[in-house]
Write a structure and sequence with these properties.
two-stranded antiparallel sheet, mainly alpha
């Protein structure tokens, strides 16, 4: 009797739609910031920029939740291999981290190189060759992906080149430690460590009103200066023991993703009635509308607190991953499935490459001043188009070289 051919699983593109939309919103957030910051920046004037997707800085949690969820999915899949499961926890953690580095580091470096070329040309046109070389040497830790832990140029020059890449390096760094924990003792990690740290960090994050900023230093009260030690920024002259806020933000989100994985596997065992599916559909639609509204207009009408937004992110991502409600099923239709899957695969590339592109567009249009400031959409639209095209090109190159899978006969 012939062996039945295994049917490959279809990728859930409801998640990919969200990741792509948030990537575009992040472009809007940074485009508005760049316009405001570059407008007569020598006098310290910051232009007011409206409609610049300001809420996307909080909805970035979606990327960390999915990163944590798929990290556990990878762990569970690889752990079925007895030879792999017998390896040490550190060996498995390094192997997982290397796959992440191989997939992200080339584009991460490209993002810094583009930032270096574009920003020194347009933001710092007076820099000579020697100064540019000095910036490169002093920023080697950033090229190695350690921006998120605070290892960056103390002069802050390089932070202005492509500072958004802290998020990518944070995912790689946090992922190593969490994967090690799962490999060492999955039950303890998923049942004690992840829930405890998630609850502790969430409560502290809310109470201190901390933001996901890589330039802020969280000290949990261990601080010897006059600042409160609860989410306040620190400098190299501040005597503190703490952690970079950006790193903590990613840790919080990935812990939430770990919890989501085990919750969703348990919920999948329940057989939902048609009425239950309708209720979940309504919840998903309402949460999605609120989340999208906040992303674009965070301080209007639905004046949502950031912690409410975090809950909405968890609800939307959880239901998308569960994939039994009407909205998730609609997004996973056969007609648009290939398109959504492809767009989702571009999301991290878009994130890593958009910042220097926005700077380039702004500078090609000419000097931005208080008297002649450019509109948000004039910068945003070409930035989106060029970034997507560049991401497509990079994806093709990555797929055909570094990420190319060997075909087995």
């Amino acid at each position: 009797m012939a062996k039945e051919k295994e049917v490959p699983k279809t990728r859930n593109v409801a998640i990919e739609v969200w990741r792509f939309l948030i990537a575009l919103a992040i472009i809007g957030f940074h485009t508005g910031y760049i316009i405001a910051r570059s407008c007569n920046a020598s006098t310290g004037y910051f232009m007011e920029v409206t409609n610049w997707f300001f809420g996307s800085s909080e909805v970035l949690l979606i990327f960390t939740l999915t990163a944590g969820y798929f990290m556990v999915a990878h762990f569970k899949k690889r752990n079925k291999d007895k030879e792999y499961a017998n390896k040490s926890a550190s060996s498995r953690a390094w192997e997982y981290t290397w796959t992440r580095i191989k997939a992200l580091m080339p584009v991460l470096i490209l993002g810094y190189v583009l930032g270096l070329i574009i920003s020194t040309k347009f933001f710092y046109p007076d820099y000579n060759f020697q100064q540019v070389c000095t910036m490169i040497i002093n920023s080697m830790w950033e090229f190695l992906g350690f921006h998120s832990v605070g290892l960056r140029s103390l002069g802050n020059e390089f932070f202005n080149l492509n500072g958004t890449l802290w998020f990518i390096s944070a995912i790689i760094i946090v992922g190593y430690f969490l994967y090690w924990g799962l490999s060492k003792n999955e039950d303890f990690m998923s049942g004690i460590v992840a829930p405890f740290l998630f609850i502790f960090l969430s409560g502290w994050w809310c109470f201190t009103d901390t933001r996901a900023a890589q330039t802020a230093w969280s000290t949990f009260g261990l601080q010897t200066t006059s600042t409160n030690g609860m989410g306040g920024s620190a400098t190299n002259t501040t005597a503190v023991l703490g952690f970079n806020n950006g790193l903590l933000f990613v840790l919080l989100g990935m812990l939430g993703g770990i919890i989501l994985y085990y919750l969703i596997q348990k919920v999948k065992e329940h057989k939902f009635s048609n009425g239950g599916k309708v209720v979940l559909t309504i919840v998903n639609i309402l949460a999605s509308i609120l989340l999208l509204w906040y992303t674009v207009y965070p301080a209007t009408w639905f004046n949502l607190e950031r912690w409410t937004v975090s809950l909405l992110c968890i609800v939307v991502i959880g239901l998308s991953l569960l994939n039994i409600d009407g909205l998730s099923k609609a997004l996973n239709n056969k007609i648009t499935h290939p398109l959504f899957q492809y767009l989702g695969s571009l999301s991290l590339y878009i994130y890593m490459l958009h910042y220097p592109v926005a700077i380039l567009i702004l500078r090609l249009l000419g000097q931005n001043t208080e008297a002649t400031s450019y509109s948000f959409w004039l910068i945003f639209i070409p930035t989106v188009i060029i970034t997507i095209v560049l991401s497509c090109v990079i994806k093709v190159i990555m797929d055909e070289t570094i990420l190319k899978k060997k075909k087995t006969v």
